[in-house]
Design a protein that fits this description.
Strand content: 25-35%
Largest sheet: 3 strands, mixed
Order of helices and strands: EHEEHEEEEEHEHEH
Number of strands: 10
Distance between the termini: 38 Å
């Protein structure tokens, strides 16, 4: 027999897991219900990196993309010999960064491009500076905006809160 855990109860379990794993960080966990199911949105500022939070919360997702990528298959988890299906089809995470962190990283990136902040145009693409390749090893594009570079580095930079 498989136990079904509602999206609301899944959110409670996610909150508990986040509190245990990152006690110094405040998280917002919100449930969104829609015709095809439900999802959770997890937001926080500073603290642990996105990959660290994903490692904790993704184990509560109730589905995964099928082979075609067009549909989702249910995921049945095993815990203490019990089969469990969580009610949140997807768990989406979004880490906010403080303005001070953003400004600090932006200054480094602009300098590494050999420019000043006044020279940077919003949403204009630039070649990827070495600092992005060194500090955001997941970067896979030939160019990007300064904002893209800041987000890529910030997503992999722990703010020391957890």
């Amino acid at each position: 027999m498989t136990i079904y855990v509602s999206a609301t109860d899944t959110a409670k379990l996610v909150r508990k897991a986040l509190k245990e794993n990152f006690p110094g960080t405040k998280f917002s966990v919100r449930t969104t219900k829609y015709a095809g199911g439900a999802s959770l949105d997890v937001n926080w500022t500073g603290g642990p990196t996105t990959p660290k939070v994903d490692a904790v919360v993704k184990s509560f997702e109730g589905s995964e993309p099928d082979a075609s990528g067009d549909f989702c298959d249910p995921v049945i988890h095993e815990k203490d010999g019990q089969r469990i299906q969580y009610g949140a089809r997807h768990i989406l995470t979004m880490r906010m960064i403080t303005q001070a962190t953003y400004d600090s990283i932006q200054t480094e990136i602009v300098a590494s491009l050999g420019m000043t902040l006044a020279m940077v145009h919003n949403w204009e693409s630039y070649p990827v500076p070495q600092i992005v390749l060194e500090r955001a090893n997941h970067w896979r594009y030939a160019q990007g905006t300064v904002h893209d570079f800041v987000r890529a580095i910030a997503d992999n930079q722990n703010d020391g809160l957890s």
